[in-house]
Structures are given as structure tokens and as C-alpha cells.
Automatic annotation (TrEMBL):
<keyword id="KW-0067">ATP-binding</keyword>
<dbReference type="InterPro" id="IPR003593">
    <property type="entry name" value="AAA+_ATPase"/>
</dbReference>
<dbReference type="InterPro" id="IPR017911">
    <property type="entry name" value="MacB-like_ATP-bd"/>
</dbReference>
<dbReference type="InterPro" id="IPR015854">
    <property type="entry name" value="ABC_transpr_LolD-like"/>
</dbReference>
<keyword id="KW-0813">Transport</keyword>
<dbReference type="InterPro" id="IPR017871">
    <property type="entry name" value="ABC_transporter-like_CS"/>
</dbReference>
<dbReference type="InterPro" id="IPR003439">
    <property type="entry name" value="ABC_transporter-like_ATP-bd"/>
</dbReference>
<feature type="domain" description="ABC transporter">
    <location>
        <begin position="3"/>
        <end position="233"/>
    </location>
</feature>
<protein>
    <submittedName>
        <fullName>ABC transporter ATP-binding protein</fullName>
    </submittedName>
</protein>
<keyword id="KW-0547">Nucleotide-binding</keyword>
<dbReference type="GO" id="GO:0005524">
    <property type="term" value="F:ATP binding"/>
</dbReference>
<dbReference type="Pfam" id="PF00005">
    <property type="entry name" value="ABC_tran"/>
</dbReference>
<dbReference type="InterPro" id="IPR027417">
    <property type="entry name" value="P-loop_NTPase"/>
</dbReference>
Length: 233
């Protein structure tokens, strides 16, 4: 499974003109590979992730998810694609206060029409995979910030996606917990063969990535400023 953005341009209305958020961006993320995307605020990182997630349709170019070209798909088709092939880890976990950790995951399976017993079993397996087997019946207020982020990651994997998109997972965590979360994402990427994009401001975590690319004014740079990981275009 892979993620491919080819010659993608995205603009937004800006007064009488258009503001270019992404300028002919090409990015290839292979199966089992972790690509880190860095760049200053307003550089286009969030736009890149939104286009990759098919939440925003670019002005031009193509987005291919697991071999499927998303060009021309309807909203319903894109929603179905996201539900089955794309896992999104948002910056804030946004867990439902009244649900346990396991139930947070089971909601995803319910939306996909899975049987409750099978969904419970998969939820418990995923919580064990992220080191929370003993926290399955805890509610968000009973979990630490790092544990809530782990539930967030497990939830994104509930429907076995081929593409995993991760937005600033360490922003609310200290260095030690942030490093643990990135290590977890790296391990799950390898084990589950996802094509993973990690957007981050934390350059200390870049050593975990297979490739590092920098967004500057909507363009991808082949020379991200790090000595810890190779770069890519």
C-alpha cells in the first residue's frame, strides 16, 4: 500500500486573487515507510496533510491512495475511501469523555458496520499493541496525555488502513513521552505496512523517519535541515 501525490497545486481565495498553499508538490510514500514533513507555521504542512487525507480537493494534480486515483471521486466515495484506507491521527485526541478507551475504538468499527463482538476483540488487540492492554476500560480523564495519544493512534488503525497520516502527535507532550509516541508510530508503520506521513515541528524526532522533507512556501525541499535522516523530494 502506498500514498502518492503528483504535481499537486492547491490555492485559496485571497481578496481579488488566489493564495498558493501547495505549489506543484510531488510526494511518494511507500508501504511500510515513514516520511516526516517539517516546515514553519503557514508553510503548507496542514494543507499537504488535508490533501493527502482527501479532505480537500486540490486545484490540479493527483492523489493516489493504495493504487486508487481519487480524481473525480464524489464526496461519498471519498468518505468511504477514508473510512477503509486512511487512518488520521489528529493533533488533539478529541476522545469522547463518556467512553472507555476500548469504546473509543469500537465506535469506528460500528460506523463501518462490524459486529460488536468482533469490534471489541480488535479494539483490545490494538490497545495491547500500543501498550494499553490494562487501560481498556479507563475513560479519558483516567489516562495521561501520552496514553490518550496512544488511544488516538489505535483508533486511527481500527479499520486497518493502508495510509496513516499523523498531525503533530507530540505537540502537547514532554520530550520523553513525545519520543515514546514517535517510536510507537514507527514500530506500527513497520509491523502493519502502512504508508505513514508524520507532520511535526519537533526536529528532535526526525531520526525515526525513513525520509524527511521540508515544506517552504508550499513547495517541498529535497534538503530538510537534519543530519539524522535522509531526505527526499
Amino acid at each position: 500500500m502506498s500514498l502518492n501525490l503528483t504535481d499537486v497545486t492547491l490555492t485559496y481565495p485571497d481578496g481579488d486573487g488566489r493564495l498558493t498553499a501547495l505549489d506543484r508538490v510531488t510526494l511518494d510514500v511507500p508501504e511500510g515507510g515513514l516520511t516526516a514533513v517539517v516546515g514553519p507555521s503557514g508553510s503548507g504542512k496542514s494543507s499537504l496533510l488535508a490533501v493527502a487525507a482527501t479532505l480537500i480537493t486540490p486545484d490540479s494534480g493527483t492523489v493516489t491512495v493504495d493504487g486508487t486515483d481519487t480524481t473525480g471521486m464524489s464526496r461519498g466515495e471519498l468518505a468511504d475511501l477514508r473510512r477503509h484506507r486512511i487512518g488520521i491521527v489528529f493533533q488533539q485526541p478529541n476522545l469522547l469523555p463518556s467512553l472507555t478507551a476500548a469504546e473509543q475504538l469500537q465506535v469506528m468499527a460500528h460506523l463501518d458496520g462490524r459486529r460488536p463482538r468482533a469490534a471489541r476483540g480488535r479494539a483490545l488487540d490494538l490497545l495491547a499493541a500500543v501498550g494499553l492492554a490494562d487501560r481498556a476500560d479507563r475513560r479519558p480523564h483516567q489516562l495521561s496525555g501520552g496514553q490518550r495519544q496512544r488511544v488516538n493512534i489505535a483508533r486511527a488503525l481500527m479499520n486497518d488502513p493502508g495510509v496513516l497520516l499523523v498531525d503533530e502527535p507530540t505537540s502537547a507532550l514532554d520530550h520523553e513521552r513525545g519520543a515514546a509516541v514517535v517510536a510507537l508510530i514507527t514500530r506500527l508503520t513497520r509491523e502493519r505496512g502502512t504508508a505513514t506521513v508524520l507532520v511535526t515541528h519537533d526536529r528532535a524526532q526526525l531520526a525515526a523517519a525513513d525520509r524527511v522533507t521540508e515544506v517552504i512556501d508550499g513547495r517541498l525541499s529535497a534538503h530538510a535541515p537534519t543530519t539524522h535522516a535522509p531526505t527526499t523530494h
